[in-house]
Amino acid sequence: MFSDQSEKMSLMLTAKNHSIPLSDGNRIPIIGLGTYGDPQTTPKGTARECVKLAIDVGYRHFDGALMYYNEHEVGQAIREKITDGTVRREDIFYCGKLWSTFHPPELVRLALERTLKTLQLDYVDLYIIELPMAFKPGDEFFPKDKNGKCIYHETDLCATWEALEACKDAGLTKSLGVSNFNQRQLELILNKSGLKHRPVSNQVECHPYFTQPKLLEFCRQNDIVVVGYSPLGTSRDASWVNLKCPPLLEDEVLVSIGKKYNKSPAQVALRFNIQRGVVVIPKSFNPQRITKNFQIFDFSLTDDEMKLMEGLNKNIRFVELLMWSDHPEYPFHDDY
């Protein structure tokens, strides 16, 4: 169930003021723009133009990663909007990610510095471990053996975390978090002896068909904000998406609630999550959708509508990452 506190907070959020507190004293905007685009098919300059548009629309939170291959464009867009006076650096919240080939402690700072150099920024606002699964370090993001199988690497998540703590102490990132961690993996960090900085966030798949009630409750109890990726479902790419799950945005409950408020099913799905205190990072390179996805602060769902939408949970992931399901730290074998 969503908490009364989350709902009260969501009702106070506006397009101009929509950030929520993190446990370390920093704040995170409750809606951000996901910036992943297939580097093979996304035309050069797309991310740059879309981030600039998003800033003009009112977005202040951008979710990126070194392995998206477009951090240079995202950084350029942010810098251009600072230069033209639209925003200041402190108005922008950028989340970067530590990729799986950089888990060894001696590589962590190098990876973050590489992101900062690519962005041409002095710091990121949040730096997260993208996956709890380590891959063999090297130049390849997806190292493979002669049979085409990913080459795994064994690292201690607590040692990786200590290296991240040093990055925060050095001022390279304001906050630290994780992504795709289950309860056991979160507890590894939370119970680490000598823990200096707690994870403030856990970025996981979260939408009306996969509401994550148990993980959400665990994170709430530990002051960890849940950041929901694929909040509108995801692309129908059979190479990595579970197609057994029907398209979320065609759900008749979302459609009918949307009609009541003159909103799209996407806007209803996003509003559902922010009323539960879940940060949403819908990815779009479509200017019209970028604009519409942000228009979720001028209506709110009733308690009955929230319960109805919670009842849509199918407990099925779109993003299963089955190609790595034999990794010792594959997170999705556990209940949550």
UniProtKB/TrEMBL annotation:
Substrate binds at residue 153. Transmembrane segments: none annotated. It comes from the Eukaryota. The active site is at 68 (proton donor). GO terms for biological process: bile acid biosynthetic process. Residues 31-313 form the NADP-dependent oxidoreductase domain. Pfam families: Aldo_ket_red. One of its GO terms (molecular function) is Delta4-3-oxosteroid 5beta-reductase activity. The record marks 97 as: Lowers pKa of active site Tyr. PANTHER family: ALDO/KETO REDUCTASE. Belongs to the aldo/keto reductase family. This is NADP-dependent oxidoreductase domain-containing protein. It comes from Pygocentrus nattereri (Red-bellied piranha).
